[in-house]
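Hi all, posting the design record for the shared folder.

TITLE: backbone redesign
STEP: 1 of 1
STRUCTURE INPUT:
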């Protein structure tokens, strides 16, 4: 067992899986770098430094620098997966998904269905999400609800290093296309992580805090806010079930409904925009399937329905805060 950051486990886990399975390869912009230049034949390791040294170990046939054309290299990865390879593709920012959306939702997400279940598309598309990094509106979106809407895609959103490792192993070994979304402000968050490889099954939520008064479902970085709020409320004698779905497609709605059956109150915390978002989806599931368990109206805590602002003061106000989670919990308790 070691203390690791999310940044560390992503690169280490991918390298371990590439050693285990020669069909696993890496594609993306500047993941290898250095070709034709003086100095080290290696890149910084991609935009966030995950892949440093990998081209030296695995070679340019498996660590593949791509042109700046998401439609080209995402499409190429889909074709590689359909023919038996297991590509892991670095999209960098999820905001770029619009450039290659046809390849994702109209091709690879539909291969298994269109070929009567006989086709497999084992590939992982990694992308960063979220505000707080001062990256501007075009590099800070939470588009998880967009890809969650697409049948045929699995969507993973880890909130800590332990889950990031286990979910990445599962994603690489899965037979379907997986969208693996990491919140960029969490990369240096650390926790204990086993040294050996392990897989966390998709569709199984985690309960970082347990209680009986209010259920708080939180997504990605909002899990840290929900835990902080739950710890503050615990000192006041209020206990919360904090649920981290870990994957939003498939979603462990059974765990959420069972928790609400006990607490009778639900707060959903998501940095995504409110209209047609994941918070509204989870609230709708509980309203439809667990209505008679509710003792108060459901509350959602989300970002406003605007692009992410660039001004630091506005960006900080845009992201849901611990204080907003506390207010929502106290509101449903008061109701």
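Okay, here is what came back for every position:
SEQUENCE:
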């Amino acid at each position: 067992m070691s203390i690791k950051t999310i940044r560390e486990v992503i690169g280490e886990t991918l390298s371990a899986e590439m050693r285990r399975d020669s069909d696993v390869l890496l594609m993306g912009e500047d993941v290898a770098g250095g070709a034709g230049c003086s100095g080290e034949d290696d890149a910084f390791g991609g935009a966030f430094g995950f892949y440093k040294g990998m081209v030296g170990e695995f070679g340019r046939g498996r660590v593949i620098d791509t042109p700046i054309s998401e439609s080209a290299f995402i499409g190429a990865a889909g074709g590689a997966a359909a023919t038996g390879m297991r590509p892991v593709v670095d999209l960098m920012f999820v905001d770029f998904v619009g450039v290659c959306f046809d390849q994702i939702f109209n091709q690879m997400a539909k291969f298994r269905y269109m070929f009567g279940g006989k086709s497999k598309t084992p590939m992982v598309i990694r992308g960063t999400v979220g505000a707080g990094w001062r990256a501007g509106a075009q590099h800070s979106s939470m588009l998880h609800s967009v890809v969650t809407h697409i049948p045929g895609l699995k969507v993973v959103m880890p909130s800590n290093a332990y889950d990031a490792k286990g979910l990445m192993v599962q994603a690489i070994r899965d037979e379907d296309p997986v969208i693996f979304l990491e919140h960029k402000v969490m990369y240096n968050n650390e926790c204990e992580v086993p040294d050996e490889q392990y897989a966390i099954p998709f569709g199984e939520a985690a309960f970082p805090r347990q209680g009986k008064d209010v259920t708080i479902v939180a997504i990605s970085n909002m899990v840290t806010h929900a835990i902080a709020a739950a710890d503050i409320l615990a000192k006041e004698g209020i206990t919360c079930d904090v649920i981290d779905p870990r994957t939003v497609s498939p979603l462990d709605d059974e765990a959420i409904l069972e928790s609400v059956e006990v607490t009778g109150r639900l707060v959903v915390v998501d940095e995504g925009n409110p209209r047609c978002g994941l918070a509204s989806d989870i609230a709708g599931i509980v309203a439809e399937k667990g209505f008679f368990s509710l003792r108060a109206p459901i509350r959602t805590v989300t970002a406003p329905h605007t692009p992410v602002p660039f001004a630091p003061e506005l960006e900080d106000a845009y992201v849901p805060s611990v204080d907003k989670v506390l207010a929502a919990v106290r509101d449903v308790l008061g109701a």
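COMMENT: The CA atoms of residues 122 and 173 lie 7 Å apart.
Let me know if anyone wants the other runs.
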